[in-house]
UniProtKB/TrEMBL annotation:
The protein's name: Putative ABC transporter
Region of interest called Disordered, as start-end residue ranges on this chain: 547-572
Domain ABC transmembrane type-1: 1-117, 623-744
GO terms for cellular component: membrane
Domain of life: Eukaryota
Keywords recorded for this protein, A-Z: ATP-binding, Membrane, Nucleotide-binding, Transmembrane, Transmembrane helix, Transport
Annotated membrane topology: Multi-pass membrane protein
Length: 744
C-alpha cells in the first residue's frame, strides 16, 4: 500500500506545487522509498515463501513416511483392496499435488472443488500382466480399453479447464470494470479537471488494483485448496484401513521350545469399508430399499463363508523345539500356509487377552466367568528372529545378488556357500551376467524354480533363528529338491529351528516333529514314529483330507510316488537339467544387453526451445499455430492498451479533438473488449488442452504397449506408472497455464 501513497505525494510535489516555486521541493525521500519498496517486498516475500515451502516439504515427507509405515502394518483384508498402482499414485500424484498446491492454500480458506483423480488402476493392472498381454497379442484391445477410460477423463478435463479459465478471465477483467466504474463516478461527481486526472485518479486506480489482486488469484487458490483436500481425503482413506492387531512378544514357557501356540483361533480380520462416491452410495441405498431382505440374507451367507474359510481354530503346538525340523502336512485348503502366516503375524489372533476381556464386558452373563476366560485366552510365544519363505516367491526388481543379500552386508564366503547349498551355481553359469543379471518386475525373466531358490537363498543368507519354509520344494524338480533338502534345509540350516510346510513325504523320516492339519485344525502331532504307531498313514491322510474338502486332488500323493521313482534316475535327470541349462544360456547370451537394469534418463539445465514447440504442436494443428499465437497476442495487446489509455486520458494534448467524456467511455469499452476476448480465448484453450492431453497420453500409451518385453524386464514398474500418474496429472492441470505465462 506504500506505492500509491508515495506516487500521489511525488505528483503533488512535482505538478500541483510547481506553480509556487517557494513551496516546490523535490521529494527525494519519497522517491528513494518508492524505489526500495519493491525490493523490500520481494525480500519479505522470499522469507515467507521459504517458510511455506519448508513447512510443505515437512508435511510431504511425514505423509510419505506414514504411507510406507502403513503398508507394512495392513492386515490381509486391507491388502486385498490396495494394489501397487494405487500406492504409487499416493506417492507420485497425491503427495506431488500437496507439495505444489499447499503453499497457495495458506492464502485462503474456502470451500474446495473436486479435481481430477488419475486412473492408475487400469494402467497398473495392464503393466503387471504385460508379458501375458504381449504373448497373447492383446495390445490393441488393452489400448482401446485404456483410451476409452481416458476419453471420459478428457471430457472432465475440458470442462474443468473451461470453468477455471472462465473464472480466471472474470477475475482478471474485474479490476478493469471496477476501475472504470469508480473513475467515471469519481470524475463526474467531483468534476475533476483533466489536468488533475493523473494526481487524483491514477493513485486511486493503483489502490483498486492492489485491493483486487488477491481476488484475481481466487480461482487458482480454490483449485489448489480443492486439490489438497482431495489428495488428503484419498490418503486419509488409506491410512484408516484396518491394521494387524499387534501383541506383545512373549517367550515360550519352556526354554527348550522355539514356538509355542496355546488354544489359539486365528482370522483375517474385518474387511475394510471401501470408499464410495455419492452416486454409488445413492444407487446402493436405492437397491437396499428395494431388496433389503435379499441383501441381508446374502450378507449372512458371505459372513458364514468367511468364518468357514478364513479361520484356524483351537491351534496348540506341543514340541517345536529349538533347532528341530518340524514338518507341517495336510491336504489342499487345510490351513498349512495360514499356520506359517500366523507365526509372522499376518493373521490376527482372534481370542487374545484384549478381545476376550472385551467380550466379557459386552456379555455380562455368568458363562463368561474369569475362570473360563482364562481357559479361552490364546497365546503365541516365539523365541528368536524369523525368516519366512512364502509359497509364492517374492522377487524384487534388482540383480540376483541384490535379491539374495537384500540389504545385508555382503560376505563373499557366506554368499558363495549359500549359493551352493541352494543349487544356484548352474543357473549363474547360464545367466548372461551371472549373479549380477537384472531381474525384471516380479521375476518375469526367471523360471518358477529359480525364483523359489533365490527366495530360499535370501532367507538362508539373512541368518535367522527360525525358518518358516512354505513348500519350497514344490517349485523344483526332484533332483534339485533333494539337493535343497539335504544341503540346505537339513544341512546348512541344521541347528536352526525349521518349520517346513510340505507334502513331500519322502523326507518325513528325517523330521523331528510332524504336525498334521485337517479342516483348519491340528489333527495330530508328534514324531514320525509315534504317529505311525498310532495307525496314521500319511498318504491316506492327505488323500482323505482332499476328498473331505471336496477336492479330488491326489496330486500330492502321486507327486511323491513320481519323485521317489525319479530320484533313482539321477542320470536321466542330470541330462534334462543340462539340456535346460544350455537352452537358458543360449537365450541369455542372445539377450545380454536386455538383462541389465536401465537407469532413468533425465535432462538437466534449461528447457530447450524444441520442447516448447513440441508442446505447441500438441495444442493446435500446425496450420493453426499462427492463429493461436495471434489470438494470445491480441489479448495481451488489448490488456496493455488499457494501461496506456489511462495515460492518454490524463494528458490534454493527446487527441485534443476527443472530448474528456469520450475518453472515459473508450476506457470502459476497452474493458468490455478484454472480457470478450478472454472468454473466446478460454474456449480455444479448453479445446486445445483437451487435444494436447489426448495426444500426449495416447503417444505415451502406444510407445509403452508396443515396447518389447525386455523393456519391462529392465524398467521398474513404478517408473512407468509414475509417467501415467504424476506426469500426466501435471500435463492435464498445470502445463497449459505455465506455457501461456512463458509465451506471454
Amino acid at each position: 500500500m506504500v506505492q500509491p501513497v508515495l506516487m500521489k505525494e511525488i505528483m503533488n510535489q512535482t505538478i500541483i506545487k510547481a506553480s509556487i516555486p517557494e513551496l516546490t521541493k523535490f521529494p527525494y525521500a519519497s522517491v528513494i522509498i518508492l524505489i526500495l519498496s519493491p525490493v523490500l517486498r520481494a525480500f519479505f516475500d522470499s522469507l515467507a515463501c521459504r517458510f511455506v515451502v519448508h513447512f510443505t516439504s515437512n508435511i510431504r515427507s511425514a505423509l510419505a513416511g506414514l504411507i510406507y509405515k502403513k503398508v507394512l502394518s495392513l492386515n490381509i483384508t486391507s491388502q486385498s483392496n490396495i494394489n501397487a498402482g494405487r500406492l504409487i499414485s499416493f506417492i507420485s500424484a497425491d503427495l506431488n499435488q500437496i507439495g505444489i498446491s499447499l503453499p497457495y492454500v495458506f492464502q485462503i480458506f474456502l470451500v474446495p472443488v473436486q479435481i481430477f483423480v488419475p486412473f492408475g488402476f487400469i494402467i497398473n493392472e495392464t503393466l503387471l500382466g504385460m508379458r501375458a498381454v504381449k504373448l497373447s497379442g492383446l495390445e490393441k484391445i488393452f489400448i482401446e480399453h485404456i483410451e476409452a477410460a481416458r476419453k471420459m477423463q478428457l471430457n472432465d478435463i475440458f470442462f474443468q479447464t473451461f470453468w477455471i479459465q472462465m473464472m480466471i478471465s472474470t477475475m482478471r477483467v474485474t479490476p478493469s470494470f471496477v476501475n472504470s466504474a469508480t473513475i467515471a463516478t469519481y470524475i463526474f461527481s467531483k468534476n475533476i479537471p483533466q489536468s488533475l486526472f493523473a494526481v487524483e485518479v491514477q493513485p486511486t486506480s493503483l489502490f483498486l488494483i492492489m485491493e483486487s489482486f488477491p481476488f484475481s488469484f481466487l480461482a487458482f487458490q480454490m483449485q489448489d485448496l480443492g486439490a489438497v483436500i482431495t489428495s488428503m481425503i484419498r490418503i486419509r482413506d488409506f491410512l484408516i484401513l484396518p491394521e494387524l492387531v499387534k501383541t506383545d512378544k512373549k517367550l515360550p514357557t519352556n526354554s527348550d521350545l522355539a514356538v509355542e501356540i496355546t488354544n489359539c483361533s486365528f482370522g483375517w480380520g474385518d474387511p475394510p469399508e471401501i470408499p464410495m462416491t455419492s452416486e454409488e452410495r445413492e444407487e446402493l441405498e436405492l437397491e437396499q430399499a428395494k431388496r433389503k431382505q435379499q441383501i441381508m440374507e446374502q450378507k449372512e451367507k458371505i459372513d458364514q463363508n468367511l468364518q468357514q474359510t478364513n479361520f484356524l481354530e483351537n491351534i496348540s503346538t506341543q514340541s517345536v523345539n529349538q533347532g528341530s525340523l518340524t514338518m507341517v502336512i495336510g491336504s489342499v485348503g487345510s490351513g498349512k500356509s495360514s499356520l506359517g502366516s500366523v507365526l509372522i503375524g499376518d493373521i490376527e489372533l482372534m481370542n487374545n487377552e484384549e478381545q476376550v476381556e472385551q467380550n466379557i464386558k459386552q456379555n455380562n452373563e455368568q458363562k463368561y466367568s474369569k475362570l473360563q476366560s482364562e481357559q479361552t485366552k490364546g497365546e503365541v510365544r516365539i523365541d528368536g528372529s524369523i525368516a519366512y519363505c512364502p509359497q509364492t516367491a517374492w522377487i524384487n526388481n534388482n540383480t540376483v545378488r541384490g535379491n539374495i543379500t537384500f540389504g545385508s552386508k555382503f560376505s563373499k564366503k557366506k554368499y558363495n556357500d549359500v549359493v551352493r547349498v541352494c543349487a544356484l551355481e548352474p543357473d549363474f553359469q547360464a545367466l548372461a551376467a551371472g549373479d549380477m543379471t537384472a531381474i525384471g518386475e516380479k521375476g518375469v525373466n526367471l523360471s518358477g524354480g529359480q525364483k523359489a531358490r533365490i527366495q530360499l537363498a535370501r532367507a538362508v543368507y539373512s541368518d535367522r533363528d527360525i525358518y518358516i519354509l512354505d513348500d519350497p520344494l514344490s517349485a523344483v524338480d526332484a533332483h534339485v529338491g533333494k539337493i535343497l533338502f539335504e544341503e540346505c534345509i537339513n544341512g546348512r540350516l541344521k541347528g536352526k529351528t525349521r518349520l517346513l510346510i510340505t507334502n513331500q513325504l519322502q523326507y518325513i523320516d528325517q523330521a523331528d516333529n510332524i504336525i498334521l492339519l485337517r479342516d483348519k485344525q491340528i489333527f495330530a502331532q508328534g514324531s514320525t514314529e509315534n504317529l505311525k504307531n498310532n495307525g496314521i498313514s500319511f498318504e491316506e491322510f492327505i488323500i482323505k483330507g482332499s476328498q473331505q474338502s471336496g477336492k479330488e486332488d491326489k496330486s500330492g500323493f502321486k507327486d511323491n510316488k513320481q519323485q521317489r521313482s525319479t530320484i533313482n534316475n539321477d542320470d536321466k535327470e542330470d541330462k534334462l537339467i543340462e539340456d535346460e541349462k544350455d537352452q537358458i544360456k543360449k537365450e541369455q547370451e542372445e539377450n545380454v544387453a536386455k538383462k541389465i537394469l536401465t537407469e532413468e534418463e533425465q535432462d538437466t539445465g534449461a528447457v530447450t526451445w524444441g520442447s516448447y514447440f513440441d508442446y505447441l504442436f500438441t495444442l493446435v494443428p500446425k496450420w493453426a499455430i499462427f492463429f493461436y499465437l495471434f489470438s494470445l497476442a491480441i489479448v495481451e495487446v488489448v490488456t496493455s492498451f488499457e494501461s496506456w489509455w489511462i495515460g492518454v486520458i490524463g494528458i490534454e494534448t493527446r487527441y485534443p479533438t476527443m472530448s474528456y467524456n469520450w475518453k472515459i467511455v473508450i476506457y470502459v469499452l476497452i474493458g468490455v473488449a478484454i472480457l470478450l476476448l478472454n472468454y473466446v480465448f478460454v474456449l480455444v484453450q479448453s479445446f486445445s488442452n483437451k487435444r494436447s492431453c489426448k495426444i500426449i497420453h495416447n503417444d505415451l500409451l502406444n510407445h509403452v504397449m508396443k515396447a518389447p518385453n525386455s523393456f519391462f524386464e529392465t524398467t521398474p514398474l513404478g517408473r512407468i506408472v509414475n509417467r501415467f500418474s504424476g506426469d500426466i496429472v501435471s500435463n492435464d492441470q498445470q502445463l497449459l497455464m505455465i506455457y501461456n505465462w512463458v509465451i506471454s
